[in-house]
């Protein structure tokens, strides 16, 4: 009886189960906030936010945000390089075909027969002189071309002794002969500094100066519309023929005076370099005329 009373009088909170509930020793998770993600993560579980981020990465790849423009730019760059490569291949094919047909020849451009490159072959200190001589040669060709219709117009308009057949003959023969006999020699002379080329130029360049004087005077029967042809045309009232003949006369005067000027310069250059006629004869005897005309490597 006494023991039962003592049990009733004891503290009900001394029960071990009650103490563990009071001091939190049973299950701390019951008191934790159900919205506390840190506690969930601490337990090793995967948070909802992390799962959502991974899902977003799978549903929305990063290429749709930042790398799509970069990818397009790479494709444009590749396409541009392919176009440039194709263009280079076309140029190489054209160059190869050109070399197959003509070798190294590059002049005249419409049908290359010889190799002509002042910048590549002529020494820098002589390039300006050579380029001006080249322009004078082109002026000669242009004047001969202009001369043909001028003389034809004068013949049609009954200017006395207008010889258009002579004008056509000049146009056919003078351009190739002048190129081979005096233009090419001075070109090769400045390039290689051989006496032979200079003295060939002096010989045939001198003949060309005499022809220029002949063309400038321009007798009506000669086929050159020079100063006398101008006077004859205007004297007979043929104003159109006279006007055309003035242009032709100026062309003959300009190219003749220019060639005379550079003839003197080339002669001085020849003297400064010490070239002699004896050296020219020795070179001709050693290499022969064939090597000169074919521009052999020995000359």
From TrEMBL:
<feature type="transmembrane region" description="Helical">
    <location>
        <begin position="196"/>
        <end position="219"/>
    </location>
</feature>
<keyword id="KW-1133">Transmembrane helix</keyword>
<keyword id="KW-0812">Transmembrane</keyword>
<keyword id="KW-0472">Membrane</keyword>
<protein>
    <recommendedName>
        <fullName>Scamp-domain-containing protein</fullName>
    </recommendedName>
</protein>
<feature type="transmembrane region" description="Helical">
    <location>
        <begin position="239"/>
        <end position="263"/>
    </location>
</feature>
<dbReference type="GO" id="GO:0015031">
    <property type="term" value="P:protein transport"/>
</dbReference>
<feature type="region of interest" description="Disordered">
    <location>
        <begin position="1"/>
        <end position="76"/>
    </location>
</feature>
<dbReference type="GO" id="GO:0032588">
    <property type="term" value="C:trans-Golgi network membrane"/>
</dbReference>
<dbReference type="Pfam" id="PF04144">
    <property type="entry name" value="SCAMP"/>
</dbReference>
<feature type="transmembrane region" description="Helical">
    <location>
        <begin position="162"/>
        <end position="184"/>
    </location>
</feature>
<dbReference type="GO" id="GO:0055038">
    <property type="term" value="C:recycling endosome membrane"/>
</dbReference>
<dbReference type="InterPro" id="IPR036259">
    <property type="entry name" value="MFS_trans_sf"/>
</dbReference>
<dbReference type="InterPro" id="IPR007273">
    <property type="entry name" value="SCAMP"/>
</dbReference>
<feature type="transmembrane region" description="Helical">
    <location>
        <begin position="134"/>
        <end position="156"/>
    </location>
</feature>
């Amino acid at each position: 009886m006494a023991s039962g009373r003592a049990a009733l009088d004891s503290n009900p909170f001394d029960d071990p189960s009650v103490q563990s509930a009071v001091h939190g020793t049973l299950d701390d998770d019951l008191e934790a906030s159900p919205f506390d993600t840190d506690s969930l993560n601490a337990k090793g579980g995967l948070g909802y936010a992390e799962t959502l981020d991974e899902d977003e990465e799978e549903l929305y790849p990063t290429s749709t945000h930042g790398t799509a423009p970069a990818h397009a730019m790479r494709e444009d760059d590749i396409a541009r390089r392919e176009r440039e490569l194709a263009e280079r291949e076309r140029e190489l094919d054209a160059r190869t075909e050109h070399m197959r047909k003509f070798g190294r020849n590059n002049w005249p451009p419409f049908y290359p027969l010889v190799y002509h490159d002042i910048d590549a072959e002529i020494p820098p200190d002589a390039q300006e002189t050579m380029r001006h001589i080249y322009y004078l040669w082109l002026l000669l060709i242009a004047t001969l071309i202009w001369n043909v219709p001028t003389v034809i117009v004068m013949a049609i308009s009954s200017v006395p002794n207008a010889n258009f057949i002579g004008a056509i003959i000049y146009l056919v023969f003078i351009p190739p002969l002048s190129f081979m006999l005096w233009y090419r020699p001075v070109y090769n002379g400045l390039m290689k500094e051989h006496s032979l080329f200079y003295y060939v130029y002096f010989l045939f360049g001198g003949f060309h100066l005499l022809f220029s004087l002949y063309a400038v005077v321009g007798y009506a029967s000669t086929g050159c519309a020079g100063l006398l042809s101008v006077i004859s045309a205007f004297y007979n009232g043929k104003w159109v023929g006279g006007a055309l003949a003035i242009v032709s006369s100026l062309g003959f005067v300009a190219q003749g005076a220019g060639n005379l000027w550079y003839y003197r310069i080339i002669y001085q250059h020849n003297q400064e370099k010490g070239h002699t006629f004896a050296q020219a004869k020795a070179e001709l005897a050693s290499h022969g005329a064939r090597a000169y005309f074919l521009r052999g490597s020995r000359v």
